[in-house]
Amino acid sequence: MLRHKYGITDASLLIVIYPSVVKKHHPRWDLQRLARVSAKISGLIKGRIAVVGGAREGREWRAAFGNSGGIVNLAGQLTVPETAALLAQARLAICNDGGIMHLAGAVGCPMVAIMPGVSRYHRPPGEFVRVITPPLIAGSAGGIDCISEEAVNKAAAELVDATDGSKKIIK
Fold first, then answer.
1. d(Cα 57, Cα 76) in Å, to the nearest integer?
2. H-helix or E-strand containing 40?
């Protein structure tokens, strides 16, 4: 279905972005930063980027980026089972905190989870999950904007290096 409708021929070369939605007490990492990190990692594997989520995330992505850059905006287009199937085949997901982040972990997708704070209880499931949280600054956690692109790039590159398209550890 994805091949015919969206031109995705090899999901194992796909980097999936989940931007999540902005809520009053639920910050997210900036869309521009997500796009830059995903583009860099996509270049490593010579893959494509797809955005997933609800219709609101799809509208926000279109407002920020239009339909340019070769990024396939599937947010609001896929059902939850279709999103799960896509994530199960994807090479990597880079996700803000939210439901699809947990879905990615549940289906075994290698993932960088960007979270404002994390306890073991709220950590997404999965063997190939790297949780990135704000660094401690002067004894308290900084905001989610304190998470560097370098930290997310490093975690994503390590996951790409440690797995192949079948999600098995190869190192």
1. 7
2. helix 31-45
Q: What is the chain's pLDDT, residue by residue, as a tens digit (171 residues)?
A: 565 677 777 777 889 999 987 776 677 888 888 888 988 888 888 888 899 999 999 888 888 887 766 788 999 999 999 999 999 999 999 999 889 999 999 999 999 999 887 666 678 877 899 999 887 665 555 678 888 899 999 999 999 888 876 555 444
List, in sequence order, every beta strand (DSSP E) within the chain: 14-18, 48-51, 71-73, 92-96, 111-114, 129-132, 136-137, 140-141
Burial of 111 (0-12, 13-18, 19+ CB in 10 A): buried
How would you classify residue 80: left for phi > 0, otherwise alpha for psi between -120 and 50, otherwise beta? alpha
What residue ranges in 30-164 does DSSP mark as E strands? Answer: 48-51, 71-73, 92-96, 111-114, 129-132, 136-137, 140-141
Structure tokens at 98: 């939210």
- Candidates 71, 98, 55, 69; CA nearest to 14 is 71
Of 33, 54, 123, 51, nearest to 90 by C-alpha is 51
